Amino acid sequence: MALQSINPFDGETLESIAPHDAAALERAVGAAAAAAGAWAARPVTERTAFLKAAAERLRAGRAELARVITREMGKLIGEAEAEVDKCALVCDYYAEHAERFLADAPVESDAGRSLVVHQPLGVVLAVMPWNFPFWQVFRCAAPALAAGNTVLLKHASNVPRCALKIAEVFVDAGLPAGVFATLLIDAARTEALVADPRIRAVSLTGSEAAGRRVASLAGEHLKKTVLELGGSDAFVVLEDADLDAVVEAAVRGRFINAGQSCIAAKRFIVVDACAEDFLARLRPAIEALRPGDPLDPATTLAPLARADLRDELDEQVRESVRAGARCLAGGGALDGPGWFYAATLLDRVAPGMPAYEDELFGPVAVVIRAGDEAEALRIANDSRFGLGGSVWTADPVRGEAFARRMACGAAFVNGIVKSDPRLPFGGIKDSGYGRELGELGIREFVNAKTLWIA
């Protein structure tokens, strides 16, 4: 069945793209395996020169690539442009630092000389999502390629043109044949690839269900995995916070990409002392968001990426309201073409409601009230997810102490949770395991091998 590229703004089918047949898939996997040895043998500086070239291609094609992202996935054009910029940044980062990260590490022992060397694993299968269709790929591929692995991309089925454009970037950068390739295949054939002995590791960003399935298959075949799964990040507001600044950050942190971000601020946990003031500022800011054509710079609320995602979100909101949550703004799909959902504000959210227990992947701000700081911390950690979180306070020392006790992979004080090429990124609990980015990210898909020399 052909892969459909559909514009979320108006539901128009942009193009139908034929998937790879069995012969094409075999050629791609065989080429990646065949290229692995020569690619690994190149000096790090040669490998990273291709990343520098890819960064140049990304910047040169920024306008075109951003437009492809917006038309196929639906995000605001300014956010799409920023995504392309960030991909170039991560290529530059590993081009500059990979040699140091992968350098031999001498260790004192009973040997005449002993050291740890970092060698690539081989072919890495990258199973990537649609919500940041370029960034999620490049933050995986850049360190994996720099480390000397070859990469096969299985992208989400609703962003096939983005997947092909990413491959074009690497081809235009001069990357040797077989070192990076896009596979246009469905989930069933992806599972078969995990079992293929030529593939040595899997990196997946996606749903909990997908993560559990891939981890199970990879474990059966004894393959390394990195999983970046869902999140329900806490955004904790203490009574001494600057509410005007906090609300501005809250709107950006929740409604970026129409709320379709694993690290979006999904649970606003606000102490009672400032809850009413916070809501009085937050509600009009949410109501001011303007839905429209995401290619129009004046639009501030993008559509959701697919109709089924909008329907699932709507049911979560309605069930939470039936259970006692108060809907102060929005609360339903918008009339007209496209897959728009109103910017929504839910108050008095409590345990047992979908808005408390589950990840709401869309433009819905959830407010949970806490009696004091101690209760706010308990609520923040009362989640099966553990990707990121933030705390907002006038006292940075207090904020750091709070952040250290948050059960998540990244805790921010007076800042929106974000990924940064310089810092490791990943979660705990049902948000997955392993790390991307930074020095830890490039070390995930290498063999840290001991050399002992008498």
Quick overview of this protein structure:
This protein has 454 residues and is an alpha/beta fold.
**What is the top-level CATH class of the largest domain?**
Alpha Beta
CATH architecture of the largest domain: 3-Layer(aba) Sandwich
- Spatial arrangement of strands, main beta sheet: 12-13-14-11-10-16-17
CATH evolutionary superfamily of the largest domain: Aldehyde Dehydrogenase, Chain A, domain 1
Q: How many β strands by DSSP? A: 20
Helical content band: 40-55%
Report mean pLDDT, rounded to a whole number: 98
Structural class by SSE content: alpha/beta
Number of domains: 2
Number of helices: 15
The largest pleated sheet is described as: 7 strands, mixed
* Alpha-carbon distance between the two ends: 60 Å
Characterize the overall form.
globular
- The percent range for strand residues is 15-25%
- CATH topology heading of the largest domain: Aldehyde Dehydrogenase, Chain A, domain 1
The low-confidence parts are none
Rounded Rg: 22 Å
Description:
By secondary structure, the chain is an alpha/beta fold. The protein has two domains: 3-229 and 431-453, Aldehyde Dehydrogenase, Chain A, domain 1; 233-421, Aldehyde Dehydrogenase, Chain A, domain 2 (3-Layer(aba) Sandwich). Helices cover 43% and strands 21% of the residues. The chain is built from 15 helices and 20 strands. The strands form five sheets. Strands 12-13-14-11-10-16-17 form a seven-stranded mixed sheet, with helices on both faces. Strand 3 (105-106) and strand 4 (113-120) form a beta hairpin. Helix 2 runs antiparallel to helix 4 (77-101).
